[in-house]
Amino acid sequence: MISELKILTGKRDAGTYLKECYCTRPFKIANVREERSDPVLRLMMMSSSPGMLDKDHYQLDITVAAGTALHLQTQAYQRLFNMETGARQEMTVRLQTGSTFTFLPHPLVPHEKATYTGYTNIHLAGNCRLIWGEIITCGRKLNGEVFLFTKLHSITQVYAGKRLLLRDNLLMQPGLTDFTAMGWMEGYTHQATFLFFDTHENVAMNETADSLHRYLEEQPRMLAGVTRTQGGGVMVRLLGHSGEQLYECQQQLARLLSA
Asked: How far apart are CA 185 and CA 138, in angstroms?
């Protein structure tokens, strides 16, 4: 089933409002902003489906208009059920001049024999900020499903104009890869990617990367690496033992960047 979600923000006085929204089943959008004076538009992406089923095709299109700020969150963990053909998600995000976008979704949980491909393309204009994350679990760990999915392929690309700043190509195929081998999961079962880009001029990105690194060094039972990217960006890769652990860590990283 093809499912679509489109969001366009608008600027009103000093705040952001939802200018246009279009969605088909199973998607719904809820405005969860608690204070009307909050200049950031806070939306929750909800779904009436328990997760992605075989042959599902999600198409997400988000435009954060010039001078606006959007914080998009999810309702719950995204489950990927048993599949024969596979499911697919395509997400396009456009940040116009002077905009801010934060998206730290709940973890992906691939069930046994799940097959999933995700494409994310993010386009940055000048003077904008992006906080983006992705968490991938080993499966239903408490049920004994550890790396029993068939295939999980996630491709994330970040552009400034037509210039490619980052391409993260993550391919996991448990039937072909031994994740206990050296150089893979290092004994951990969950992983996360955290991206921060700021295209304002004269941003002290080295200091930002150092502050994130100092925080991550203090976190127990977790392995992390921080890397500078092209175009004023920082990429963080995290390894841990639970989705909740990595989700809370990403939320704290976002708070540090907003401080």
From this structure: 10
